[in-house]
């Protein structure tokens, strides 16, 4: 007796009639499971990338649809991570597209109780003025014996783990040129 596998509703009958007793083949599929597809199959393209969180350099694949990121996964072709990502790397999608992230500069005035939005250029100017003022106020040109120092201990920098190696390199060069010696990164702590 021959059965049409598509007409059999009960999976056990499909398994027995097709010889797939273990249910590892098409006999175990329902109409719904046969129609399922990967959530990433609709991507227009996959862009190779590197995780931005630390210096390990785990490979990532960025899935793009309609010029928007739809997902970020580990890259199995990466000899470093072989498709694996740590919890921070797995959350890269939230770093890029998180709705909880502020997209504007917020400023709270001294003794203020509320945050207010200010233009980015105003914020950059405020930071530049304050860095210059702190640097000038704490500048040490030489020791008491006349040995050159050319440094400031009044400013320090602690970088975040979301910075990549190139950004950390540039930050180190910038802050060293300002005379800062206390420069560290959270990824190493």
TrEMBL record:
GO terms for cellular component: cell envelope. InterPro entries: Mopterin_OxRdtase_4Fe-4S_dom. SMART domains: Molybdop_Fe4S4. The keyword Cell inner membrane does not apply. Keywords: 4Fe-4S, Iron, Iron-sulfur, Metal-binding, Oxidoreductase. One of its GO terms (molecular function) is molybdenum ion binding. It holds the Pfam family Molybdop_Fe4S4. Residues 44-100 form the 4Fe-4S Mo/W bis-MGD-type domain. GO terms for biological process: anaerobic respiration. The keyword Oxidoreductase applies. It is found in: Cell envelope. Its cofactor is [4Fe-4S] cluster. Belongs to the prokaryotic molybdopterin-containing oxidoreductase family. This is 4Fe-4S Mo/W bis-MGD-type domain-containing protein. It comes from Geomesophilobacter sediminis. The lineage of its organism: Bacteria, Pseudomonadati, Thermodesulfobacteriota, Desulfuromonadia, Geobacterales.
């Amino acid at each position: 007796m021959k059965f049409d596998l598509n007409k059999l509703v009960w999976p056990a009958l499909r398994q027995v009639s097709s010889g797939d007793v273990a249910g590892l083949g098409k006999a175990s599929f329902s109409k719904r499971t046969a129609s399922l597809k990967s959530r990433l199959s609709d991507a227009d393209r996959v862009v190779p990338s590197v995780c931005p969180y630390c210096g390990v350099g785990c490979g990532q694949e960025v899935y793009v649809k309609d010029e928007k990121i739809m997902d970020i996964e580990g890259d199995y072709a990466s000899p470093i991570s072989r498709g694996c990502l740590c919890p921070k790397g797995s959350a890269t999608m939230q770093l890029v597209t998180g709705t909880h992230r502020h997209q504007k500069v917020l400023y709270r005035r001294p003794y203020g109780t509320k945050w207010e939005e200010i233009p980015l250029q105003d914020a950059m100017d405020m930071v530049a003025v304050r860095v210059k003022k702190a640097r000038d106020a704490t500048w040490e040109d030489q020791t008491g014996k006349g040995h050159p120092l050319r440094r400031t201990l009044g400013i320090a920098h602690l970088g975040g783990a979301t910075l990549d190696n190139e950004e950390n390199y540039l930050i180190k060069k910038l802050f060293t040129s300002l005379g800062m010696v206390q420069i560290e990164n959270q990824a190493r702590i």
